[in-house]
Amino acid sequence: MFPKATAKIEIIGVDKPYKFEILVKRGIIVDEYLESRVDNYYDDEFPFEFFKSYVDEDGYVSRTLYSGGAPATLRKEGEHRYLVGYYSAPDEFKIILLFEDDVVITSKVVKRRMFESKMTFDLTGVDLSSSKSGVGVVTEDIPYVPIISKFIIRVVLTILVELGILALFSYRSKRSFMLVGISNLVTQSLLTLFMFIAHYTWMSYFGALIILIIGEFFVFLAEMIFYGLKLKEHKKGRAVLYGFVANLATLLLSIFTIAFI
């Protein structure tokens, strides 16, 4: 029903044929239907006999064969680009390349942090003529600049909307605008932070939407009570109503713009 975590992995520094697979830490099992699991592998020629009994020094085995019962899709998207997908990309794994003559190259343990992860496995300068473990450099792309810029835009836009609605409710004093601006800076920064964490590391847009709805419930209550107590320019009823209307407006705005996170 919900999005599944993925990892797009690009291999750099390799100029000869190989089979790509990822390894997970799981025991080898006896299963008469084991061979049927290779249907989700990117290549028709899955090295079944090799991976059926392969266990590295840390106890990692083929994810395609030993994914724990869940489907384990591996798709080739380019000459050296692979998508680790459905059921879900594992949080922790190793990358393994199998060359001719059973030469095996494995990475160090990779820990995926992003929900839709993009990684590179750089083997530039590594001697690929003999088997090696824990070599190369795996880098995960974390788009800090887009994340920070979108965070700032979302928080600032929310504050401006709520200040505009404050003006429509006939509030004019500098104190009222300062109070609303500072309170929104705190609440919306926290809410947006958790939305972004949910989006980028947990469950994409669905995760952000869940956090938004739950978080706005508490923001509604907190700000309506706070404004009722602190906005003195008009009666308490107007301040509470303002808190409700302003938060409803920003909730709807956030829902309709959630795709732009």
Tell the overall outline: elongated
How much of the sequence lies in strands comes to 15-25%
Number of helical runs?
Answer: 4
Order the strands across the largest sheet as they lie in space.
4-5-1-9-10
pLDDT < 50 stretches = none
The Cα radius of gyration reads 26 Å
Order of secondary-structure elements: EEHEEEEEEEEHHH
Structural class: alpha+beta
What's the number of domains? 2
How many E strands?
Answer: 10
**Share in helix:** 40-55%
Largest sheet: 5 strands, mixed
**Overall average pLDDT:** 95
Cα-to-Cα separation, first versus last residue: 21 Å
Summarize the topology.
Elements: E1 6-12, E2 19-25, H1 48-52, E3 60-62, E4 74-78, E5 81-84, E6 92-98, E7 104-106, E8 110-111, E9 116-122, E10 137-140, H2 144-168, H3 174-230, H4 236-256
Parallel strand pairs: 1-9
Antiparallel strand pairs: 1-5, 2-3, 2-6, 4-5, 6-7, 6-8, 9-10
Describe what is shown at a glance:
About 40% of the residues lie in helices and about 20% in strands. The chain is elongated.
